[in-house]
Specification:
single chain, mainly beta, 2 helices, 29 strands, about 45% strand
Length: about 425
């Protein structure tokens, strides 16, 4: 399982858990209106050096081992590093006093605690106590503030409404914000809690992990040059290719389960290949300037882009959210997706070509493919023609040809060389 790195923080994943507590009634049903089971990520020998950042809660009584996966963290610099710190202590949020009635007195003692982080660090979620006593400070780790992104309180997971407990309590999941370009924000599957049944207000503190998406920059292809009056090939042979690397949990792979993704393709690549495509060519053999007109479709085919997103979860054009084992938000970098990305539009071009001159007009076309780690492709190939990346060349040069471009009903622009 390949870990991910953000600054001096390494992020791995575990599918092993330690059972902590559930609200199953010893006779029948549940104590409270909903099922709830609390678990702590277990650090196996193979993951020595990693730590949980909080406990997990699931609204059922099923064993989640090998069925769920959560992030865990380690400091790349080890014990001398500054990425992680133990909490200073804990603040109790809730305990199960009041569950202990009649025939099952003493059977349901548990408590939930909020870690108190050192200055400059944050706590990622609540921790289950040792009965009614607070957890050990080494049970979880707090993260340095710059390693996380502030997030919001999401959906209700569980409340003890109807349980006859002395204290009200509700547990809520955490939702990361829409990612900025080149970033991935994802939750650690921890939870926030409050001693009430109403959703915590927007000022409640919640955090998600973050990683950057490495980019091998796409260098623009060398522009073609006319070397004669003859019409050139419609596709210039000179291309440039770059990649953006994405973590497995941002991708919906139609052929692999999440566990298979982790082992077979922990990372994916969005491949972008640029080339110049010929839009129009004119050779004016007359003794005076002559006008030539061409048109083409620019942007992206919206139906193809929607199909691609439905297949892979990726939105080439905007941030996208996924929620498999944990909630995540991602957005491709501006290097990967050009500015002005849009649906398909019609571009009209005219050119006043000088006497005894040839002119070729080009646009840059970008081809996008999503690739697994082994190079196999997912979904269809997307093509995008950028109306902001136009280029023309003359033969012979320096004959002051004029070119005008009009995108749908927008104002024209005219250029001269």
């Amino acid at each position: 399982m390949d870990p991910f790195r953000y600054k001096d923080l390494q992020i791995g994943f575990t599918e092993h858990f330690i059972y902590l507590w559930n609200n199953r009634h010893p006779m029948a049903g549940t104590i409270g209106s909903q099922k709830a089971t609390f678990w702590r990520p277990r650090i196996s020998q193979q993951l020595f050096g990693y730590h949980p950042v909080g406990d997990c809660i699931y609204p059922h009584f099923d064993d989640i081992n090998y069925k769920h996966m959560v992030p865990i963290v380690r400091d790349i610099e080890g014990a001398q590093g500054t990425a992680l710190r133990e909490p200073l202590s804990y603040e109790q949020v809730w305990d199960s006093e009041g569950f202990n009635t009649q025939n099952h007195k003493g059977s349901w003692n548990t408590s939930l605690w909020r870690p108190i982080p050192p200055p400059g660090y944050v706590a990622m979620g609540l921790v289950v106590g040792n009965g009614l006593e607070q957890p050990r400070t080494d049970a979880v780790r707090c993260l340095r503030e710059d390693l996380v992104i502030e997030s919001s309180i999401g959906d209700l997971i569980w409340s003890n409404r109807g349980s006859q407990a002395d204290k009200d309590f509700s547990a809520w999941d955490i939702t990361p914000p829409a990612a900025l370009a080149g970033e991935v924000y994802f939750c650690a599957n921890t939870f926030a809690g409050i001693g009430a049944y109403t959703k915590p207000n927007t000022m409640a503190t919640a955090y998600a992990l973050r990683v950057s998406m490495p980019v091998t920059a796409t260098i623009p292809a060398d522009a073609p040059q006319l070397t004669s009056h003859a019409e050139p090939s419609s596709l210039d042979s000179n291309t440039r290719t770059g990649f953006t690397e994405l973590p497995w949990f941002t991708i919906k792979d139609p052929q692999l389960s999440a566990f298979e993704q982790v082992s077979q393709s922990p990372t994916y690549k969005v491949e972008r290949t640029d080339r110049y495509i010929l839009i129009g060519h004119g050779h004016n053999t007359a003794e005076s300037p002559q006008r030539y007109n061409w048109s083409t479709t620019t942007g992206i085919n919206s139906a193809a882009a929607n199909t691609f997103s439905a297949t892979t979860s990726i939105d080439i054009r905007a941030p996208w959210a996924v929620a498999t084992h944990f909630k995540a938000s991602a957005k491709l970098s501006a290097i990967t997706t050009p500015q002005g990305w849009s649906e398909a539009k019609t571009l009209n071009i005219w050119s006043d070509i000088a006497p005894n001159t040839a002119l070729a007009f080009y646009l840059v076309e970008s081809r996008y493919r999503l690739l697994r780690k082994d190079g196999s492709q997912i979904g269809e190939t997307l093509l995008y023609k950028d109306d902001q990346a136009s280029y023309w060349t003359e033969y012979p040069q320096g004959n002051a040809c004029k070119v005008g471009i009009k995108l749908n009903s927008s104002a024209s622009r005219a250029d001269q060389r």
